[in-house]
# Entry
Amino acid sequence: MLRVGLTGGIGCGKSRVGDLFASLGVPVLDADTINRELQAPGHDLYAAIIDHFGPGVLDARGHLDRGALRSRIFTDPGERQALEALVHPAVEAAIEERLARLPDRPAYALIVVPLLFEAGWEQRFDHVIVVDCDPFEQVERVSRRDGRSPAEVEAIIEAQMNREERRLRADSTIHNTGKTTDAELAQQVADCDARLRQQATTGSRRVENPPQNT
Ligand code: ATP
# Structure
C-alpha cells in the first residue's frame, strides 16, 4: 500500500480534494483532525503538552487552549520545536496505527497534512500531491469561510512555504483556482487516482510528474 500525502496552502482546497478521493473509495486520513483528537483530555499527548507548558495552556474546562498554545510558540522557536517534538511522533504513530487497521489492503491511502513540507515529512510518503491556487483566492476563501481579516490570512500564508517551492517539491499538482469547476476538479482527481493505482502496481517509488497546464 502506497502512502500518499496531500498538502497545500491554507484554503487551497485540501478538504475538497480529499473528499473527492474519498468518493472514489480511497481511505483518507487527516493529520490535523488526528492531532486535535490526540490533544483532547485523557490522551497521552494532552498530558505531555501540559507537562511541558504548564496549566497556563488550559481553558476553564480543562481543554487545551489552542490560542494560548499558539501564542506561547509564536515568538519562541525553542518552544515551537518542543511542541513539534511532542506532536509529530504522536500523530505519526496514530496514522500508522490507523493505516494498519484498514480493513482491505487498498492500493494506496491518502493522508492530508497541511504543513507536510514545513514539517519535513515528504520522505515518509511515496507520492506527494499539492493542491494549488492563487494566494488572493486563499485570502478570499478563508476570510469568507472563517470570518478572519484579509491581513490575518495573509500573515498565515506568509508563514507557510511559498507556492512555487511547494509546487516544485510536489510529485503531482491539482489546480483548484477560482476558474476550476467541480467537474474539472473531479477529473484531475480521477486522473491522479489512475496514476497512483498504476504506481502501486509497478511498485516504482515515484511516477513522472505529468505536464501541468496552469
Ligand atoms: P485549510 O487549509 O484551512 O484546512 P483547505 O485547503 O482544506 O483549507 P477547503 O476547506 O477545501 O481548503 O476550501 C477552503 C474554502 O474555499 C472552503 O470554504 C471551500 O468551500 C472553498 N473553495 C474551495 N475550492 C473552491 C473553488 N474552486 N471555488 C470557490 N470556493 C472554493
Observations:
- Residues 77-100 form the longest helix (24 residues).
- Residues 89 and 95 are 10 Å apart (CA to CA).
- The pocket of adenosine-5'-triphosphate is lined by residues 8, 10-16, 114, 141, 145, 176, 178, 180 (CB under 6 Å).
- The two ends are 30 Å apart (CA to CA).
